[in-house]
Amino acid sequence: MRDVAERAQVSVASVSRVLNGLGVTSDATRQRVLDAVEDLRYVPHFGARSLSTSKNDTIGVILPDLFGEFFSELIRGMDLAARAHGKHLIVSSSHDGADDTLAAVRSMRGRVDGMIVLSPHLGAANLASEFAGRMPVLLMNGGTAEAGRAAIMIDNHGGAVGAVEHLIATGRRRIAHIRGAAGNIEADTRAAGYAAALDGHAPIIVEGDFSQASGHRAATQLLAMPERPDAVFAANDMMAVGALLAFQEAGVRCPEDIAVVGFDDVPIAALMRPALTTMRVNIAEIGRRGVERLIGLVQAGQHADAQDTACEIVRPILVERQSTAAASSARFNKG
Amino acid sequence: MRDVAERAQVSVASVSRVLNGLGVTSDATRQRVLDAVEDLRYVPHFGARSLSTSKNDTIGVILPDLFGEFFSELIRGMDLAARAHGKHLIVSSSHDGADDTLAAVRSMRGRVDGMIVLSPHLGAANLASEFAGRMPVLLMNGGTAEAGRAAIMIDNHGGAVGAVEHLIATGRRRIAHIRGAAGNIEADTRAAGYAAALDGHAPIIVEGDFSQASGHRAATQLLAMPERPDAVFAANDMMAVGALLAFQEAGVRCPEDIAVVGFDDVPIAALMRPALTTMRVNIAEIGRRGVERLIGLVQAGQHADAQDTACEIVRPILVERQSTAAASSARFNKG
DNA sequence: ATAGATGATGTAATCGGTTACATGACACAG
DNA sequence: CTGTGTCATGTAACCGATTACATCATCTAT
User: Fold this and answer.
1) A 302-331 residues with CB below 8 A of B?
2) What SS3 state is found at B153?
3) Is the C-beta of residue A25 closer than 7 Å to nucleic acid chain C?
4) Distance in angstroms (rounded) separating the CA atoms of residues B260 and B240
5) Fewer CB within 10 Å, N side or C side of chain B?
6) Residue A46 distance to chain B (closest CA, Å)
7) What domain of life does the UniProt record list for this protein's source (chains A, B) (predicted)?
């Protein structure tokens, strides 16, 4: 920068003013500075700027090991919002355990203005926000709301209830649930919603881990049961897809013999045959919203202590497709 | 940091030494410093460190508007490699045009040690590397190699040839191509490979844009042709999936009436029915490799000017699935 | 003609670390 | 007892920007 100032025959202060558009500068000076910047291919040093202004226009995102389309949709939404506000996004993904998540939080402290932490482990989320110290953190852990913590959460319980109620409404009675890994808050909450909505029907639960392969395995277990279920609520779409494929391989028809509902509405859900009924969550929108709110927190933190500590809840919407067509009408269509 | 030094009754130099593990420190001092850090919840200021050391342990990734699974796989690989080296990843995606890409490059200069630019526009890639100045840039633009530029590229031409040759080998003769948008290097190269491999068969080309919807539209066009093709090579898997769905809706059987080959081998390819034959590219591995090489470039740039300017080429592998089962055997199986 | 306002620019302190070099304590050999 | 080497630690310059404040020139009003 000194070089630029020298070449433009001005002081560093003027260069700074021109580059940031602050304060007053004459057109002649401005032009000379810009020319010098051009000639010298000058690039302001980010660290130095961050040091003087104690801001860095960067927000961190810490994600668990997410599955394909959920991940990309989320990042797309976040990236869009960040770009709109001139912020950068530091992404660190594939964090499994609480320790791992914590390490990621630590390594980002001091280099971001705020963080968004998605963690399916409640403990991790708590620790993370503790460790973050005075830096704003937005939680998207799918767990229960905590007072004083900004958060965006999916109504996993309500979504599960909606899915099961839909199955009951379309005439299903023996409704099974392929759940996510125990200890994962989202998995637990969806399982609780399933149980709550059964309305007297017997619960049939098999374990999965949100992966397509686990859905396949779980479906195979269901088929081996003496009294076969006539419907399955899978805790996410990928497991539902795995289940659909297992049913196909076993010659079990969907939706005639067994109905399937997923959760998330990833793009693949609409592409399956039969197309998958699911609880839609607008993933990109959640990502966008998360970034918007975090930026709000960052700015609020600078001005006053009026913090936004609301817990926003996103309610999934039922999207009906072929996989839960009423058995009778399915037969009719099949003609 | 001054506070920490004071509390630990040492100088800032000792604090720095303890925190970075450099130089010699007595155990007693180390412990007192660590305690003070703990008590004060001290977090080193990233900008300041970056200012003194002129490094920031961050690499930037600029991506075009990628489709779901390709995107997440790529990031997964990159994130893994970056974490292994203690680097952070700044991601900026969804850049369509050359201008957009360029703006992203500009906004990252000065805050990353190096960049990976994926741009389907040759011009953009060139400009990007120019604008980056002395910062290392790894190109993954799918275009032709340029001397003196580190790059990793997919052998799009060879992959397309492989796909078409496979179709010919399985007895197909009227082979159509659903290409990506004109001006996109990958689309152009794959189309060229298609044309080169036709071996005398008449070219049948319809336009797409890599989206599933465009594949669907293109397939509809193909079906409307007086002499219907008996095979389709789609420039990527998503278009192939769109085509498969269009064929299904039209009652055209795959692979019996028409065979389909895609490109990429995204996870969904194996889940479709019929499962999609495709040219596999190990996306995560490419991402990982890209980061590894960029880090190599960054380190080399610090030590000497021995730059790694190699252009690595990744060759797609044919993965045969149902969608191109030989017509005769397909009929047989169907029996 | 001169005080005072206005507007452009320069000076220098500051942000929070890193690190070359200086200093001081201590042990040991001669 | 003194010279020398070793090890732990402190001092202060420096990285490259921002910005409060000082300065100076020019213009206006009286």
Assistant:
1) none
2) strand
3) yes
4) 7
5) C
6) 5
7) Bacteria
Percent with pLDDT over 90 in chain A: 64
Give counts: helices (H), strands (E), chain B: 14, 12
Q: Which residues of chain A lie closer than 8 angstroms to B323, CB-CB?
A: none
SS3 content of chain B, % helix, strand, coil (to 5): 50, 15, 35
Q: Which residues pair with A207 in a beta bridge?
A: A179
Answer yes or no: is pLDDT of B33 > 90: yes
Interchain proximity B110–A273, CB inside 8 Å = no
Whether the beta carbon of B1 falls within 7 A of nucleic chain C: the reply is yes
**Sequence-separated (6 or more) residues with CB below 8 Å from residue B224:** none
- Supply φ then ψ for residue A37, to 5 degrees: -60, -45
Q: Is B273 in Cβ contact with A271 (below 8 Å)?
A: no
pLDDT digits (tens, 9 = 90+) for A238-256: 999 999 999 998 999 999 9
**All domains in chain A, ordered by first residue:** 2-44 (1.10.260.40), 56-141+283-315 (3.40.50.2300), 156-281+319-334 (3.40.50.2300)
Distance CA A158, CA A164 (A): 10
Q: What is the mean pLDDT of residues B284-301?
A: 92
**Closest chain B residue to A273, measured at CA:** B273
Q: What is the mean pLDDT of residues A4-24?
A: 90
pLDDT exceeds 50 at position A118: yes
- pLDDT value of residue A331: 41
Strand D closer than 7 A to residue B24 Cβ: yes
Angle B73-B74-B79 (CA atoms, 0-180°, nearest 5)? 100
Dihedral-angle region of residue A319 (phi above 0 means left; psi in -120 to 50 means alpha; beta otherwise): beta
- CB–CB contact B92 A93 (8 Å): no
Per-residue confidence (pLDDT) for residue A304, from 0 to 100: 55
Compute the CA torsion angle B66, B68, B70, B74 (nearest 10 deg). 90
Q: How many beta-carbon contacts under 8 Å exist across A and B?
A: 137
What lies within 8 Å, CB to CB, of B251 at 6+ separation is none
CB A44 within 8 A of CB A28: no
Q: Are B71 and A66 a contacting pair at CB < 8 A?
A: no
Neighbours of A203 (CB within 10 A): 11
Burial class (CB in 10 A: 0-12, 13-18, 19+), B207: middle
